[in-house]
Specification:
Layout lengths: L8 E5 L4 H12 L3 E6 L2 H14 L5 E5 L5 H15 L4 E4 L10 H29 L2 E6 L15 H19 L4 E8 L2 E2 L4 H8 L1 H10 L6 E2 H12 L10 E4 L9
Parallel strand pairs: 1-2, 1-4, 2-3, 4-5, 5-6, 6-9, 7-8
This protein binds NADP nicotinamide-adenine-dinucleotide phosphate.
NADP nicotinamide-adenine-dinucleotide phosphate binds next to α1, β2 and α6.
């Protein structure tokens, strides 16, 4: 199946590592020009070089930007759209992973998981409306619909807010050809990621999580990236205003 991504212009917020990196790399290999940001200047520069190596004739923008900062977020998006020469795909992948219940954790989580998406959409909207095949994908979490037994914290609630916002975008801008969806991973393993760390620190807990997933293991970064990229692509056109659980059946619910 041709995803229709050749020559498209894509942006991944939080694209230097993990799911964001796998998504940016797959978009690149499918023929997109790709812009990424992350806080760590070295990490984002290295990721930019690795993206350029995937398709040496492609256009890559890789800049350090902290998505807790509104001006930095808007500047990154505006400059990246200019340097790419337009925008067809926006993926908001970064999270503050606000595990605890402190006010600081709630504030950071709201800034990164929700407001960075709001600001990026606002800045990118003129370019997305001009695309003719525009798609916004928010990377959520199954914590937005299921209680995993952790004490109260910001993470699940802000991902739930992200889902409601994505629906508003989809309902409002569908008429302009702009789709919006949320992909919610369950537990995802990749080298150096949070579940890799848990695997090393607490192998018993990790094994129990694996056992509880019907497919007998955690998902991988590549598997989540494929779902994000399909949803973002013209081939996924009829997905709009949707929440997709990408968890291998980890949450044992009907929908
Ligand atoms: N991994 C899982 O099991 C899992 C499960 C469910 C949902 N998810 C969701 O999937 C998404 C990606 O998770 P992941 O595990 O791949 O994360 P990760 O490995 O920690 O990577 C996060 C990426 O975002 C960047 N980032 C983080 N905070 C940022 C900020 N304030 N400004 C700019 N960039 C920022 C990071 O780079 P810097 O640190 O250099 O900024 C990095 O490139 C998140 O939205 C998460 O909630 C993940």
């Amino acid at each position: 199946m041709d995803l229709g991504l050749s020559g498209r212009k894509a942006m991944v917020l939080g694209g230097s590592r993990g799911i964001g990196w796998f998504t940016a790399a797959l978009l690149m290999s499918e023929g997109c020009d790709v812009a990424i940001c992350a806080r760590g200047a070295d990490g984002v520069a290295d990721a930019g070089r690795r993206l350029a190596a995937i398709r040496p004739n492609g256009n890559v923008v890789a800049e350090a930007a902290d998505l807790t900062n509104g001006d930095a977020t808007r500047d990154f998006v505006r400059n990246a759209v200019n340097r790419l020469g337009g925008l067809d795909i926006l993926v908001h992948n970064a999270s503050a992973f606000g595990a605890d219940n402190s006010e600081e954790s709630w504030r950071r989580s709201f800034e990164v998981d929700v407001m960075a998406g709001v600001r990026a959409v606002e800045e990118a909207l003129p370019a997305l409306k001009a695309s003719g095949a525009a798609s916004i994908v928010f990377v959520g979490s199954m914590a937005s619909k299921f209680h995993f037994g952790r004490p109260p914290g910001a993470y699940g609630p802000v991902k739930a807010a992200m889902r409601a916002y994505a629906n508003e975008i989809a309902q409002t801008y569908g008429k302009d050809g702009v789709r919006a969806n949320v992909i919610s991973p369950g537990a995802v393993w990749f080298p150096g990621g949070s579940w890799d760390q848990r695997k090393q620190e607490n192998p018993k807990f990790y094994a129990a999580v694996e056992k509880a997933i019907p497919l007998g293991r955690l998902g991988t970064g590549e598997e989540i990236a494929r779902i994000i990229v399909f949803t973002a692509s013209p081939a996924g056109l009829w997905l709009n205003a949707t929440h997709i659980a990408a968890d291998g059946g980890q949450v044992a619910a009907v929908d």
